[in-house]
């Protein structure tokens, strides 16, 4: 498990060339199909390839994880846990 927080100032980041969304990028890179939100305890449908960073870490890597719209709220400053096998570095 990773304790993460929504990454700030990533709303204008476009997915890499040939990908229509960050969620498609995540699916192609992991070989998985996003069904449910990766936030532990959330059972909503994954809608976004969300940008997150590890919480309280010197690792500045931005990771993409499938999240529902509620968990992918840029105003949410509360850290949460995600399954680390679902994280894909950008």
Descriptive notes:
The chain has 90 residues and is α+β, with helices and mostly antiparallel strands. It has one domain. It contains one helix and five strands; from the N terminus they run βαββββ. The protein has one helix spanning 22-30; strands at 2-6, 48-54, 63-67, 80-82, 88-89. The protein has a five-stranded antiparallel beta sheet with strand order 4-1-2-3-5. β2 (48-54) and β3 form a beta hairpin. The mean pLDDT is 88.
Extract low-pLDDT stretches: none
- Number of DSSP helices? 1
The largest β sheet comes out as: 5 strands, antiparallel
Instruction: Summarize the amount of helix as a percent range.
Output: 10-25%
The rounded distance between the terminal residues' Cα atoms is 18 Å
Mean of residue pLDDT? 88
User: What is the total tally of β strands?
Assistant: 5
Q: Multimeric state of these chains?
A: single chain
How large is the share of residues in beta strands? 15-25%
Judged by helices, strands and strand pairing, the structural class is alpha+beta
Radius of gyration: 12 Å
Shape: globular
């Amino acid at each position: 498990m990773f304790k993460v927080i929504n990454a700030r100032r990533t709303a204008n980041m476009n997915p890499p060339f040939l990908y229509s969304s960050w969620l498609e990028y995540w699916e192609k890179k992991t070989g998985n199909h996003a069904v449910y939100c990766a936030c532990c305890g959330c059972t909503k449908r994954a809608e976004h390839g969300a940008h997150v960073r590890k919480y309280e870490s010197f690792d500045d890597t931005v990771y993409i994880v499938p999240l529902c719209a509620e968990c992918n709220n840029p105003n949410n400053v509360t850290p949460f846990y995600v399954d680390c096998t679902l994280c894909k570095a950008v």
